[in-house]
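Deliverable D4.2, example record:
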Amino acid sequence: MSETSRSQAHVHSDPAQPATGAVGTRSAGVRRTSPGVSELVQAALPLIAAWLPGQRWYAGKGRAITGLTPVVGTPLQVGDPTLLHLLLRVEHAGDGSAAYGDIYQLLLGIRSQPPGAIVPSAVLGRLSGGLHDGALVYDAVHDPELTGRLLEHMATGDRFGSLSFRRTPGPGLPGNLPGRASTAEQSNSSVIYGTAFILKLFRRISPGTNPDLELSLALSRAGSTRIPRVAAWFECRLERSEPATLGLLQRYLPDAEDGWELALDQVARLKGDPSPGNFAIEAHRLGRATAEVHRVLARTMPVARLDRAQISLMAGAMAERLDSAVAAVPGLLRYRAALRTAFRQLTADHLDGLPVQRIHGDLHLGQAMRTPHGWVLLDFEGEPAKPLAERRLPQPALRDVAAMLRSFDYAAAHLLAGAKPDPELAHLAATWAGRNRTAYCAGYTAGGGSDPSASPELMRALEIDKAVYEVVYEARHRPGWLPIPLAAINRLALTV
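Output generated by the structure prediction step:
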């Protein structure tokens, strides 16, 4: 990167200025950080409106966009290329007010010519008219030079008005590493810097500290080796609320193996070898690692105990989620009575005083990496569809255990994908899942976690609640996978 580009990037904020015009039904107001930013944002809004619905991380699929309101626009580099950081409120039909719109984080690159072989899905289009006529607008996550600028800002702890870059104490960050976009399918975007760091960019933004940053920092500061160490992050203060987490930089694990891929490899071998395989050894170790993380979180974060009234409220919330799911997926209706009975059983006397704490919140095999030094857990963001405030609440630690048990079922179901009904194959899949579920629970108990077998009603309710969430998710995003959670719902309903 040239010295000219380097010096141009450090432009500090001017007072907030209103912008005129908007896409949709509302006028747009954007805090400017240099002259021309408002005009650039306004010119890009039509391109953004057309591009957003096709993104994997966009939560408004199927709903018409009725308004785009820029919230904060900050140039992190100016010239050719320009790097524009944008927080954008997106309104949909039925939202009623801008207060109910979703805020998304965009990193826009603006160049006169494309940055090399950029993927077509990253291109928003070319601007028409004005000072930037003909300029190409694209998702800067796919531009190694511009993502390198983000790392430099984190390395030096820069601040641009309400946008702040922060780093943890320790060895300095390199400021000259280009970043490559990860190709993994996820609800956020990731950028990998060499073999040293990985940056998660949160796309859907809520005021407040993201649990991924909050819990990863707590575990890092406690010296846990079960997560990648936090190196830096950046955030933005939205109006009078606490800062919203925008990005999290952690150590990259180049030698790690994805837990989901490891499990699928074992499942695939079952067709040629009917023995259940040796993944149970790894499942046991993963259970121990999960328990270790829970113990550190219980030591460093708030804990509490739920009385019977609070447990009743928790059961009621599960029942409400079930009712909403039935409305979205009518195929659940036949199970509703049995599942509601399972939730009511949570009010039994022996659950009074149920301990709750901060947990992972969305644990599955894809959130676990096997390194040469043992299992590491990732992505403490929680279930993205839930409000941030809800994801930050203390929960029963066994909720994570139940979620991982569901993941073993998902992995086993791949043995049956695309195959004709085969009772023998179905038995092999069930045997594999059962063996690994048992091994994981045993490892969790051996690692100091609460024995799942000692709380059968709680485990069943938590697993049902997770399966209900999966049913809704699959119906909306991956209909071909819907039979997997529905099969679990059927099995669990029969145990009530």
